[in-house]
Amino acid sequence: MTYTLQGSTGTWEIVCGLEVHAQVISRSKLFSGAATDFGSEPNSQVSLVDAAFPGMLPVLNEECVAQAVRTGLGLNAQINLNSRFDRKNYFYADLPSGYQISQFEQPIVGRGEVEVELPDGSARRIGITRLHLEQDAGKSLHDQDPSRSFIDLNRCGVALMEIVSEPDIRSPEEAGAYLRKLRTVLRYLGTCDGNMDEGSMRADVNVSVRHAGEPFRTRCEVKNVNSIRFVMLAIEAEARRQVEIWEAGQEVHQETRLFDPARNETRSMRSKEDAHDYRYFPDPDLLPLVLEQGWVARLKASLPELPDAKRARFVRDYGLTPYDAAVLVAEQSIAAFFETVASGRNARLAANWITGDFFAALNRTGRTIETSPVTAETLGALLDLMADGTINGRIAKEVFEAMVDTGAAPADIVQQRGLRQVTDTGAIDDAVNAVLAANPDKLAEYRSGKDKLFGFFVGQVMKAMAGRGNPALVNEALRARLSV
Ligand code: ADP
Ligand code: MG
Question: What is the pTM of this model?
Answer without folding.
Answer: 0.89
